[in-house]
Amino acid sequence: MRVDEIDEEIDAALRSYAKPPETPEPRVMLARLLERARAEETQRRRWWPWLIPAAGCAAALLAAALGVVRTPPIPSIAFAPKAPGVVSIPAAPDRKPVTRIVARVTHKPQVHLAAESLPKLEMFPAPMPLASEEQKLVAFTRQTPPAVVRQVVEAKQHSDDPLEIAELKIQPLDEGDNPVPPKGKNK
Amino acid sequence: MRAHDETEFAGLVERQWRFAYRVAWAVLRNAADAEDAAQEAFLKILLAEAWRGLRDERAFVARAVWRAAVDTLRSKAARGSGAGAEEDWAAMVDDARPDPEAIAVAANWETAVHRLIDSLPEELRQPLALSAEMNSREIAAALGIAEGTVRTRLMRARQILREKMATVEERHYARG
Hints:
The complex is a heterodimer of chains A (187) and B (176). Chain A is an all-alpha fold.
């Protein structure tokens, strides 16, 4: 069989291949489509009354969860050490916030204890161990005579000074070493 | 849905339903599945209100229907139905056995060619089947691929078909 004949057969077979046996009527299909669309819409609307309360519940739950996670900051007055000169003013008897503060402090005792257990430093900032370069410098100053150390220090201090170079003065050439013949004397 | 919208949508269905059904049929080759896929595509268009202001409604419908048809094809493949005939015929052509019984079963030549088209890989079969309804540009728009790719696939599909048809015919004559 030739290639042209095969192609013709393929085309003919394709036409019949792509042709459906019977196409449903568009109007019948339209009626079914609209019916399905209405059914879908009804199903959607069935959820609408539940949507708003559900959203409200979700928002409330979220707010509650956030409230649990975020604890309000503890006022600094609860941790402030009493200075001898400061007179504490008693709170008014009908003020409840004072009792609330005390209650919150009792919730976090470990934080308080950790702060108190740290040793009190006499020097600030705390002395640090010498670095290796610093240790070498100390050893050098101990072993070297003071005069040498002073010279080194002075040299170090003047190391940044600008260099002074003496002005160059070039002497003119001596005429006796290289005599120039006088012009016109040979005549 | 407002009356005006309904009329407008009805116009789209009237104009494009037959074409949509043919596209679905070319992909699915099953009347019930093709009808479902075409209906699904139109329903999506209706619910998304996508029929308004279409520049090329034929291309748009072709794309929507092809997607719905491919989804149906995938779900059928996942269920494991409809693969039998394809495999049988692919085996028949590729197999070196001299006397495939399936040729005798396929009484007329056109049916045999249909089975050979069915045995093509989907990426070649679909453009070839759609080429009876659409040109390369329209197929490219529907399948979401380049027009050059469509042409290449059509050429490859035809080449494979030619070779397979020649093989089947040789065997047919060899049987006498």
